[in-house]
Amino acid sequence: MQVKLINIVDNTVKINSDFIPTNGLSYLLELDGRKILFDVGDQGFVLIHHMKLLDINPDDIEMLILSHGHWDHSHGLKALLDQRTTTKKLKIIAHPHAFRKRKISNLFRLILNLIKYRMYNFGFPKLPKFLQEKYILEPTAKPYEITPYLKTTGEISIRKEKACTTDRLKIKEGIKYVKDIQLDDLSLVLKTKEGIVIIFGCGHSGILNICARAKEFHPNSEIKLIVGGTHLVAFKEESDLEYVAKKLEEEYNKPLLYLSHCTGKKAIDFFTKRFGKEIVKPFMVGDELIFECK
Length: 294
What we know:
Metallo-beta-lactamase, Chain A; 8 helices
């Protein structure tokens, strides 16, 4: 049984393509005749434009899994819902915190972003009632099984290794805004015939903490491939990247790395130099990966 993963929205696109680069992420999973979205990117018009180019019908999407609620993974939802004509409601799976409001903690940065993006809420988008009627929210902090071979990591609150959080954001808790430690961050764990594939959104929980969770699910299988945004852009010191590389090499036997979105050029260049192009590979908009599952 095959599972196909298609990159729909990302920071990088091929030169001279009709795809538009944007600071967001969205992947499509095709499995068992089903189409499931993992995130919806930051710009709705980019998401829909790419879906048309890739011949993906918004009505065919039966489930949306949000890696977390940050704007660059959730704000394409309005356009997706607006394009759907089916009466079947879209099921949205995410951590409960994914649906909370978020804002930039620094006033100066907030003003700059209000000017640049015309946006105050940097979390899950506020949607009109007629669009709210098109989806069903299923918030859960626990791992969510999509199929026997595909599940979410669920909340990773115990982070023994360094996390990759965004310090400039706060999240609404009751009537107050508090420091956002991105508890809603989740990834997808796919069990293939060759081993474990981990599909990241932003990896705020920390790449090594996410790998450890995946091994908890499948202790007798190797992690063969990591794909997506790992937010290693947050690691400013090369020693931090070296530590991650050493762990991936010694504990996880150097899985293939299809790094994109928020990983950052510095981290991608570092891992390419460290492991070589046989291990570190590009994964741009329009690219596909196909996995054989039991």
